[in-house]
Write a structure and sequence with these properties.
It is a single chain. By secondary structure, this protein is α/β, with parallel strands linked by helices. It is built from six helices and 17 strands. 23% of the residues lie in helices and 28% in strands. The protein folds into two domains: 179 residues, FAD/NAD(P)-binding domain (3-Layer(bba) Sandwich), CATH 3.50.50.60; 119 residues, FAD/NAD(P)-binding domain. Strands 1, 2, 3, 4, 5, 6 and 17 form a seven-stranded mixed beta sheet that branches.
């Protein structure tokens, strides 16, 4: 069996950037992507905060350009789930779709995914009023009425961000008090554009061509009421796609991999880039940066192996 220099698991901005840098460095590189290239970025209608596109660019378009660029330099992309990753005497064995290969080094860039509410209308209106990223989509909702679902730091921070664009922002929380840090809470309480809807859960997201309202249930009385909104931003947590690394590396309390700023882990030859890594900001640009850093570390690691 031929041994590849590098396997990249995940075809979001981190993985695709790693693929580009690795292929340009003449590393024998293969990238695994289970769906459409781009990860969460590909599900964003328009990205306006990635440098180089003053008019913005569609998430899917940016993702396909990244994939095309990586492939142009020789990165092979295999569209398949990776079923198992394990240590091998020659590096790492990757089992996928009934096949397997061995790579000397691995960059895990499987990313994270938003935790969904799982209510009627959420999937149907994704990209048409339902969002999981205020910094990505907030500017599309100028002078709109919005609902932010959640009560943690992310929900409150993003609600305040949305007040830069929206005329009104409801924070809908299932409890009677927020879980966010006290300083964040006070800022939200002081913001005249924010109104709180306590003790409430979303039962359904409604609309015709786009979001028009949400049905809320009072968890104390069971009463159902309809709230007119133009968009729903959901912050009930994210889920790290870290299952392949269980038992190999350390996770934080939310399942994100604890890796260095150089993307290295305690396992020699295993690097973690992008949203899967514990980090303060998860954006396309920080993921892409991680991908480039990871390949630089892979090159050092492979050079040491060959000495």
């Amino acid at each position: 069996m031929a041994i590849r220099d590098l396997a990249i698991i995940g075809g979001g901005p981190a993985g695709l950037t790693a693929g580009l840098y690795a292929a340009r460095a003449a590393l024998d590189t293969v990238l695994f992507e289970r769906g459409m290239p781009g990860g969460q970025a590909a599900s964003t209608e328009k990205i306006e905060n990635y440098p180089g596109f003053p008019e913005g660019i569609g998430g899917p378009e940016l993702a396909m350009k990244m994939a095309e660029q990586a492939q142009r330099f020789g990165c092979e992309i295999i569209y398949s789930d990776v079923d198992k990753l394990e240590r091998d005497e020659n590096g790492f064995k990757i089992i996928y779709g009934g096949s397997e290969l061995v790579a000397k080094a691995v960059i895990m860039a499987a990313g994270a995914r938003p935790r969904y509410l799982g209510v009627k209308g959420e999937k149907e209106f994704h990209g048409r009023g339902v969002s999981y990223c205020a910094t990505c989509d907030g500017a599309f909702f100028r002078d709109a009425t919005l609902a932010v679902i959640g009560g943690g730091d992310a929900a409150v921070e993003e609600a305040m961000f949305l007040t830069k664009f929206a005329s009104k922002v409801y924070i809908v929380h299932r409890r009677g008090e927020l879980r966010a840090a006290k300083v964040l809470q006070q800022r939200a309480f002081d913001n005249e554009k924010i109104e709180f809807v306590w003790h409430s859960t979303v039962q359904e997201i409604k609309g015709e061509q786009k979001v028009e309202s949400i049905l809320l249930k009072d968890v104390r009385s069971g009463e159902i009421k309809e709230l007119a909104v133009d968009g729903v931003f959901i912050y009930v947590g994210t889920e790290a796609n870290s299952s392949l690394l269980a038992g190999m590396v350390k996770f934080d309390e939310n399942g994100y991999v604890i890796a260095g700023e150089d993307t290295s882990t305690e396992v020699p030859g295993l690097f973690v880039a992008g949203d899967l890594r514990k980090k303060p900001l998860r954006q396309v640009i920080t993921a892409a940066a991680d991908g480039a850093v990871a390949v630089a570390q892979v090159e050092k690691y492979l050079s040491a192996l060959n000495k």
